[in-house]
Design brief:
Glutaredoxin, two-stranded antiparallel sheet, globular, seven-stranded mixed sheet, alpha+beta
Length: 169
C-alpha cells in the first residue's frame, strides 16, 4: 500500500469536460497521472462511487466548498477519483457544481486504485472492486500526507483534515 514519501503511481485516468476549450475535447480525455502531477501540489481524494450517499452528501461537497482555501494554501488542483467511467464522473460533477473547483477523474478499471493498494471490495453489495475512501496530498509526484479510512467510514479523509495538512507542507 502507498505511504507518505512514496512516488504516486502512474496510471491513465479519464475526464469528461463539459465545454471544449484550451486544447481539451469534450471527452472522455485521458489524464496521465505522472505528467499531470509534475511541478504541482495536488489534493487528491478517492471514494467508492459517484452518486453514493456519503460521497455525494459529505465527501465531495466539502472539497468543492473549500476549493478557494486549498488554492490559497498552495494547492494547484484538487482531484476526485472514483472507480466509475468518465461520463458518470462528468454527470456527477455537473450535479455537484464542481466545474472550476475540482477535477472529476474516472479510474474505470480500478488501475490506479490497485496500484496504490487503496481498494475496497464491495462485491458483496454488488459494486465490485472500488477505491477505498482516502485523501492525500501529492507534491511534485511524491505523497506528503495520506488519510485512509477504515472500511467504509468517513472520519479522516474530509476536506478540513487535508486542508490543515496542506497548510503545513
Amino acid at each position: 500500500m502507498i505511504k507518505v514519501g512514496d512516488v504516486f503511481p502512474d496510471a491513465t485516468l479519464y475526464e469528461y469536460i463539459e465545454v471544449e476549450g484550451n486544447g481539451c475535447s469534450i471527452g472522455p480525455n485521458p489524464v496521465k497521472v505522472s505528467d499531470s502531477l509534475k511541478g504541482k501540489t495536488v489534493a487528491i481524494f478517492g471514494l467508492p462511487g459517484a452518486f453514493t450517499p456519503t460521497c455525494s452528501a459529505q465527501h465531495a461537497p466539502g472539497y468543492i466548498q473549500k476549493a478557494a482555501e486549498f488554492k490559497a494554501a498552495g494547492v494547484n488542483e484538487i482531484w476526485c477519483i472514483s472507480v466509475n467511467d468518465a461520463f458518470v464522473m462528468g454527470a456527477w460533477g455537473r450535479e455537484l457544481g464542481s466545474a472550476g473547483k475540482i477535477r472529476m477523474l474516472a479510474d474505470g478499471s480500478a488501475d490506479l486504485a490497485k496500484a496504490t493498494g487503496l481498494t475496497l471490495d464491495l462485491s458483496a453489495k454488488g459494486l465490485g472492486l472500488r477505491s477505498g475512501r482516502y485523501s492525500l496530498l501529492v507534491k511534485d509526484g511524491v505523497v506528503k500526507a495520506l488519510n485512509l479510512e477504515e472500511g467504509g467510514g468517513y472520519a479522516v479523509s474530509d476536506a478540513d483534515t487535508l486542508l490543515k495538512q496542506a497548510k503545513g507542507v
